[in-house]
């Protein structure tokens, strides 16, 4: 009995002594181990935020963030590290961007890409220390416009995302989304589906008219104002009411192109309204090869443009009817942000528009189509004399 | 004379009673950690530290620990030191910690350590036990280094991670794999056997005195039987 008590006491005391030794060692090593482990886990994050500490992965599903954002980490001092995937020259351009608590970029690196020139590998360095305005001012790299523009947009998204994650709010909608939201708010009966009306009459004070696809009515845009006019009603707004009358009375007749000589060969069709305005469809060669100073589209498909014009040669409205340009380049000519620029332009001023970045040939082809419209109107107005 | 015996305690672990090649203890970590020289070195040093510490503590406590609970006591002491070493390695040598992986905590059940506690530290003075631990630890480290050098240089054309350019085209990758390790292990055991003329493991201090069955055994019977085996083999 005495023996077994002694055995127990000895074993328990040895255990106690070892436990104390272990506890002591742990006391000294635990903080170092924790630091090591954090450092290993955050090695990638530290690339873009060298002074960051205590990174924590965030659940971003509850935030409305720019679509490019895939992951976000919160840093102890209020910074964020955000991973974004966007498309440059090719898809899969993955960028990690650190945003300091004061809203400046702490660093940006490209994690993965399929770009051809590799400019994205070092481009991130140019954003370090920049705030939103500074990021905007960073130049894209010539020859890699597509890659670097996408990169810069991703950095902008990261800055916006950081504000949103921090509890702030930023309008991250694209211009198209803002327009759609405004139209829907003005005329909910339109159920969100609207088509821009191609305007062929001079209607003073109205910037644009959208009609609901389901026939619920129209929305007239005057500056920032969106005025809904349900079908078969007249607006209280005088400007809109006046425009309504003009548009309702508008009629047009076809012009026989064979009645005129020397018309531009790229003129496809022409109409004249009762008020004397012209509606022309012309075509222009976009991206393709230049042969004998004449553009020949590589796929044989021209950009087709509809233009309405006053007899004096002032553009009322423009619309891209058809285009088969490269999706991420010249394809932008199908956007209102491009062709809307021609509204109100004359033969003297129509070239003062912003070209499509990275698509000079498309822009030139488009301008050629507009030029043909001006030439055609001159001939129609001046008879056959020219 | 006394000095001599201390020296022999220290040196016997290196060759005559090398824990890996002669006593054939600690085979598992030997095979697992000898793919690279630095991993093997780390393993050897970690085991050496645990061996020395546990030998000292067990020798200190040898008169206090009752016979009936000595194995649990040894295991607690050894496991404690292994965990201490593990925490220190994890804190200060994270690279080695990752490299050794599960084999670091497994030092606890390394036969060399429990074997030395049972055979030597439980019966000898603190000084001698420390020397024994040091000698055995060095023997373990040297054995691991020898094996890992062969495996890494010929199997991976590098030494402690530094590439050996002219070996690059003559790699025997088989050596880095487990069967290759077995092969190298076997060859080294044979080499040590030749050098020591196969007599080393039969020293009295090792065989019968260390046998847990010694009390109930006809003294010398095992040795005589083993001796007879060897002679038969030689003949």
Could you explain how this protein is built, in words?
- The longest helix of chain A has 40 residues, at 2-41.
- In chain A, the strands form four sheets. Chain A has a five-stranded antiparallel beta sheet with strand order 1-2-3-4-5.
- Chain A is elongated.
- Helices cover 33% and strands 23% of the residues of chain A.
- Chain A has helices spanning 2-41, 43-48, 120-123, 132-137, 145-165, 175-186, 238-249, 336-339, 360-382; strands at residues 56-57, 69-74, 80-86, 93-99, 105-112, 194-196, 208-212, 217-222, 225-230, 252-254, 267-273, 278-284, 288-291, 294-297, 303-309, 315-322.
- Chain B is mostly helical and 235 residues long.
- Chain B has two domains: 2-200, no CATH class; 204-235, no CATH class.
- Chain B is 62% helix and 2% strand.
- Chain B has nine helices and two strands, in the order αααααααββαα.
- The model of chain B has no long low-confidence stretch (mean pLDDT 83).
- Chains A and B meet through helix 1 of A and helix 4 of B.
Q: Mean pLDDT of chain B, nearest integer? A: 83
Q: N- to C-terminal separation of chain A? A: 130 Å
Largest sheet composition of chain A: 5 strands, antiparallel
Helical fraction of chain A equals 25-40%
Largest sheet of chain B: 2 strands, antiparallel
User: What best-fitting shape of chain B do the alpha-carbon axes yield?
Assistant: globular
Q: Got a strand count of chain A? A: 16
What's the number of helices of chain B?
Answer: 9
Gyration radius of chain A, rounded: 32 Å
- Read across the widest sheet of chain A, the strand sequence of neighbours is 1-2-3-4-5
How many individual β-strands of chain B? Answer: 2
Number of separate structural domains of chain A: 3
**In sequence order, what are the helices and strands of chain A, one letter per element?**
HHEEEEEHHHHEEEEHEEEEEEEHH
């Amino acid at each position: 009995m005495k023996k077994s008590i002694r055995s127990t006491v000895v074993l328990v005391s040895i255990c106690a002594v070892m436990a104390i030794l272990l506890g002591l060692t742990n006391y000294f090593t635990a903080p170092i181990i924790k630091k090591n482990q954090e450092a290993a886990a955050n090695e990638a994050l530290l690339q873009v935020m060298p002074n960051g500490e205590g990174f924590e992965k965030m659940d971003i599903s509850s935030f409305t963030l720019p679509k490019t954002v895939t992951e976000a980490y919160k840093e102890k001092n209020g910074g964020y590290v955000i991973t974004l995937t966007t498309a440059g020259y090719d898809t899969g351009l993955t960028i990690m961007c650190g945003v300091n608590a004061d809203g400046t970029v702490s660093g940006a690196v490209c994690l993965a890409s399929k770009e051809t020139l590799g400019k994205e590998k070092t481009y991130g360095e140019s954003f370090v220390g920049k705030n939103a305005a500074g990021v905007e001012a960073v130049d894209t790299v010539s020859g890699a416009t597509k890659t670097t523009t996408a990169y810069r947009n991703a950095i902008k998204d990261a800055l916006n995302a950081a504000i949103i994650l921090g509890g702030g709010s930023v309008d991250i909608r694209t211009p198209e989304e803002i327009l759609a939201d405004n139209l829907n708010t003005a005329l909910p009966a339109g159920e969100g589906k609207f088509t821009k009306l191609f305007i062929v009459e001079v209607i003073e004070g109205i910037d644009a008219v959208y009609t609901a696809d389901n026939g619920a009515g129209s929305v007239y845009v005057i500056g920032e104002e969106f005025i809904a006019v349900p079908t078969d009603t007249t607006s209280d707004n005088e400007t809109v009411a006046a425009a309504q009358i003009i548009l309702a009375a508008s009629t047009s007749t076809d012009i026989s192109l064979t009645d005129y000589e020397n018309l531009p060969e790229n003129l496809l069709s022409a109409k004249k309204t009762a008020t004397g305005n012209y509606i022309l469809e012309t075509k222009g060669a976009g991206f393709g090869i230049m042969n004998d100073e004449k553009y020949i589209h590589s796929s044989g498909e021209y950009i087709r443009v509809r233009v309405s014009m006053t007899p004096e040669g002032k553009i009322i409205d423009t619309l891209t009817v058809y285009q088969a340009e490269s999706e991420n380049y010249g394809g932008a000519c199908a956007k209102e942000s491009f062709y809307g620029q021609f509204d109100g332009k004359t033969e003297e001023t129509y070239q003062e528009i912003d070209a499509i970045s990275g698509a000079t040939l498309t822009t030139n082809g488009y301008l050629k189509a507009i030029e043909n419209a001006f030439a055609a109107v001159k001939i129609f107005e001046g008879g056959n004399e020219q | 004379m006394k000095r001599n015996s201390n020296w022999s305690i220290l040196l016997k672990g290196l060759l005559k009673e090398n824990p890996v090649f002669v006593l054939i203890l600690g085979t598992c970590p030997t095979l697992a950690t000898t793919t690279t020289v630095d991993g093997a070195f780390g393993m050897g040093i970690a085991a050496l530290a645990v061996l020395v510490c546990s030998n000292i503590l067990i020798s200190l406590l040898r008169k206090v620990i009752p016979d009936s609970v000595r194995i649990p006591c040894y295991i607690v002491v050894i496991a404690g030191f292994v965990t201490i070493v593990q925490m220190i390695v994890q804190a200060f040598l994270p690279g080695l910690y990752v490299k050794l992986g599960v084999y670091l905590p497994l030092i606890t059940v390394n036969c060399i350590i429990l074997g030395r506690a049972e055979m030597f530290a439980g019966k000898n003075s603190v000084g001698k036990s420390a020397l024994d631990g040091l000698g055995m630890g060095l023997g373990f480290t040297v054995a691991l280094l020898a094996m890992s050098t062969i495996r890494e240089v010929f199997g991976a054309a590098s030494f402690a991670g530094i590439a050996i350019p002219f070996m690059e085209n003559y790699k025997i990758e088989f050596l880095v794999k487990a069967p290759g390790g077995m092969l190298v292990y076997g060859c080294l055991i044979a080499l040590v056997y030749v050098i020591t003329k196969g007599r080393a493991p039969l020293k009295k201090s090792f065989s019968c005195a260390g046998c847990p069955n010694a009390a109930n055994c006809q003294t010398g019977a095992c040795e005589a039987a083993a001796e007879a085996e060897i002679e038969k083999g030689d003949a």
